[in-house]
Input
Amino acid sequence: MTLLEIPWNVNPIIAKLGSFELRWYGLLFASGFLLGYQIMLNVFRKEGKSEKDLDTLLFVMIVATVIGARFGHYFFYEFDDFLKNPGTFLIDMITPPYQGLASHGALVGIVTALILYARSHKDQPFLWVADRVVITVALAGFFIRMGNLMNHEIVGKESNLPWAFRFNLFSMSPDGNLVMTPEGFARHPAQLYEALSCLVLFGVLFFLWNKYKVQTPRGLLLGIFLIWCFGLRFCYEFLKENQEAFEDKMALNMGQILSIPAVLLGIGVLIYTFTKGKNKEIV
Output
């Protein structure tokens, strides 16, 4: 045991009333959407877009994020179980609590939803809206990873670094209360690494949009987001425990495999931006 480790004793439950639990994860998850809405409201006002469209965009983003992340979790991590009982999993996919969210699935869901949104809003082409939405997605990524930290989940591998966290194992007492037992060793706070990376990414993307606004090159922010977010995700996975047992036999885990096409897509978007896409609209 190192004296420099950080004991992480945060209770994931903020308050409990009967069977209802208010958790840090849910509060932080919702905060991402609420602050994201305010950011997009600022964007729409400064770029002369109709604020009425924001309600539709918010609804699209919530549905796409939840369904995409839930479906992605089952498809990428529990596919065999999903095939055995698809009806149960489909119901579980859309009903809270949302235990098991895959960011790569959320990406697919959001991109698909934004393509459909852009087709019905001709003044907001796909690359225009995607460039601005990823600003809020980066901020949401910060809140979600902080929620994972509060939940003591998606933990890193064992570490003796001075900033290593000693997380807790959870069990239920006979009276139904949550019991936290510290692990026997400290770990990389991988959730914090990703959270801070997302927060810095949010700052970079917002700075670039605020500098160029309407003149922001189409695809610039989307390309940066994909390369930054999933490039670092690929690297951070080397410091994290695998989420599922089947990944232990793989040279690269599922998160790394799925991050590769996202990074390549980001590179492709930036190539388009600086060659053919400067004066073109894409729906």
Remarks:
- The radius of gyration is 20 Å.
- The mean pLDDT is 88.
